[in-house]
Predict the structure of Acyl-CoA dehydrogenase.
Amino acid sequence: MDPSFTAEQDEIRRTLRELLHKRCGPEELRAALDTPAGHDPALWTALADRLGLPGLALPETYGGIGCPVTDLALAAEETGRALAPSPFLATSVLAAPLILALGTDAQRADLLPRIAEGRLTAALAVPAPHLTTALALGGANDGDWAGGGRAGGVQARRAGDGWQLYGEAAQVLDGHSAALLVVAAHTGGFVRSRALLFLVRPDAPGLVRQRQTALDPTRPQGRVQLRQVAAELLGNEDADVAGALSRTGDRAAAVLACEAVGAAGRALERTVEYVGRREQFGRAIGSFQAVQHRLADVYVTVQAARSAAYYAAWAAGRGERAGGLALAQALEALRTAAGEAVQLHGGIGFTWEHEAHLYFKRAAGDELLFGPVHRLRAHAADEAGLFERTEVAV
């Protein structure tokens, strides 16, 4: 592994940071959160036009740039620094790779170029709270997480030459606003039970969507209700859906780890700036040794998580799995950095007027969506066979 970045990667980071600094400051961020979609469409258009962000890791055949996963992860680190609310995670990190992996030639040719241009946003709808399981980050995804033939989840059944979906998926990232839904549904009853992925258009009769109140307002979520909604099967019935979800999950975990590291790093930077200005007993509180020790511990934690995240992104490009473990370390680093930010900002740290609480909510919200940390680590340990079970004779 070469730890240095290319000139192109440095340029991506620099340009993206400058654009987000101009277009996603504290005031712009709060204004975007209050919109029905929960993000600024104009910012998404700018990210698409200037950087090609939606199609950064898509093949050039479909209008993308064809960059490796590492470039996508480095871009996520910058969006994490700004807590930028955008369809980036739902569209480019979760939905687009699944369409690329499982879609028919016609589906890819129709959808991926529009995604790459930023004209089409998409969301992966998985029944809550099974997103981590579906992506094989917290356990094997060969179970009944999509519904299992019982009440709950989303059920799929044939309707003539097509399919119909019935059920509900909550806590869907951008599920209330995405122009295309990739819905995980259970089909086959109890005999040939399995999960398949389906494409649902926003104007489909019987589809009801609404934005949900989320702990982290910078991660807009929606509830998707399907009442005999016509759907198009993504790919074919013989597709390896579990394998595609697993590969997408590991890659998404690496990207999410870099995003969390970016947020943690920025929370630490803001805290260091503040303790250097805030005075108590006639001197800056950053000069107190106890404060310096606390921030030094946070710095070490963030840097270790950054190294793990970069390695996971590099490994994902080589087909190796390290995303889950890196995500666990990055989420823990973000929680630590955000917690210390609230503490060391004192009375203003938890107020709505200050941005510190947004980083704390991002840390807590991401653990609810993609964690918890101990589950990510336990699954990574099981996959690596670190703790072999032995039978003791009685």
